[in-house]
Design goal:
Number of strands: 3
Structural class: alpha/beta
Largest sheet: 3 strands, parallel
Shape: globular
Number of helices: 3
């Protein structure tokens, strides 16, 4: 029997994430890109046969709703203390 991994993915608020990519897409394109990358990461992690569960920690209700629809368990980033605190 193979032990399955439990993956935790912490996501910054999309407006503060992937700042080096800011300016690549005009207008609200940056936010859409960050959300798409996050959801692609959740989907790819869930598709891994060695992963038993995925927990997404994120303050964005829209992102949590979409990730939950993919099969992730989602939690708010409380108290919005950053990525390290979210992983703890």
């Amino acid at each position: 029997m193979v032990d399955l991994w439990n993956a935790v993915i912490a996501l910054k608020p999309p407006d503060r994430a992937k700042l080096r990519l800011r300016g690549v897409l005009p207008g609200s394109g940056h936010r859409a890109l960050v959300v798409a990358m996050a959801l692609d990461t959740v989907a790819a992690t869930l598709a891994c046969r060695l992963v038993g569960s995925v927990v997404l920690v994120c303050d964005e209700v829209e992102v949590r709703t979409a990730a939950a629809a993919l099969g992730a368990r989602c939690l708010p980033d409380t108290p919005a203390a950053g990525l390290n605190a979210a992983l703890v």
